[in-house]
Amino acid sequence: MASLVYHAGALGDFITTLPAIGAWRRLHPGEGTVLLGKPALALLALPAFDQTWDAEGAELSALFSLPFAATQRLADLLRQFSSALLFAAPSSPIPSALAALGVKEIVRQDPLPSLPVPIVDYHLSLFPGLSFDAASSQPRVAIPELEPDSVRATVSVHPGSGSALKNWPRERFSELCRRLSQEGESVAWITGPAEADGAAPQGVREWRGFSLPVLAALLARSKVYIGNDSGVTHLAAAAGCPTIALFGASDPRVWAPRGSVVRVIISSSGDMAGISVDDVWGVVRPMLGQC
C-alpha cells in the first residue's frame, strides 16, 4: 500500500510542511509516498516522494469537484492508498472523495493556523505522539551538485515576494547592494519569473530563470542571503544559508523562516519603509564577519 500527501500551495508554504511530511513518513514505514501537488516543488523534497502527481492535471480534476464522480482509472489509481495527509481547507472535497474510495486513515489540516504560532510547529502539532529536536523540526531541501566553476561565495538578495506590501523598497535593496560591492563582496540579485521590472542594479549580477533545485544549490553556497517574507527566503534558510528576513506587513511569529542561522528584522511601524538600509547593514556586516 501507499500513502498520499496533498499540498498545492506556494513555495514557502510547501517548505514549511517538510518536517511534518518527514514525521508522516516515520509513522508509515515501508509505504511508498505520492505527492499530489506541484511537481516543481517536489524536486526540493527528494527522496521523500516516490511519485508526484500534478494537482492541476485533468485526470485528477474529479477529486476537486462535487459531487465526486471518478473514472474507473482514477478510482483504480486512488485505491492503492491506505492513508492520506491533506493540507486542505475544511471545504475541500478531497477527504470525502478518498474516503468514498476506501482510504482508511485520512488526516487533514488547514494550510494556515488560526493562532500566531510558528508555521512549522503548527504543522508538527499533527503528531503529538512524536518528539522533535532542532534538526527534525527544521525544513531542509535537497541540494544538487553544481559544476565547480559555478560555485562562488556571494551575498544573494531577493527584492520580491508574493505581495507588494511585503517588499522592502527596491531602492534600498539597490543601496544595500552598492554598499556590499564597495566592501568587496560579490552580490547576486535574484529575479523571480513574475517580476517584470526586476532587473539587477548596474554592476550586480542577476540570477534569473534557474530551476528551484539549482537556486537552492546556489543559495546553499552563498555567504549570506537577504530577502522579504517570501518563498525564496524560506528556500534560503532551508538550504542552510545564513538568512536575513525582512518583515513589515506579515507576522514573523508565524512566517519567520527556520534555519540554522536566521535573523529577522521587523519594521516597528508595520510598513516595510520603516526598515532603513542602516538597520539591515548593521545585521549584514557582523554575519559576513563570521563567514
What does this structure look like?
- The protein has 291 residues and is an alpha/beta fold.
- It folds into 2 domains: 2-124, Rossmann fold (3-Layer(aba) Sandwich), CATH 3.40.50.2000; 153-289, Glycogen Phosphorylase B (Rossmann fold, 3-Layer(aba) Sandwich), CATH 3.40.50.
- 30% of the residues lie in helices and 19% in strands.
- The protein is built from 11 helices and 11 strands.
- The protein has helices spanning 11-16, 18-27, 39-42, 72-78, 94-100, 119-124, 170-182, 212-220, 231-238, 252-255, 277-289; strands spanning 2-7, 32-37, 51-54, 81-87, 105-109, 155-158, 187-191, 205-208, 224-228, 243-247, 262-266.
- The chain has a 6-stranded parallel β-sheet, with helices on both faces.
- The longest helix is centred in the middle third of the chain and has 13 residues, at 170-182.
- The model has no long low-confidence stretch (mean pLDDT 93).
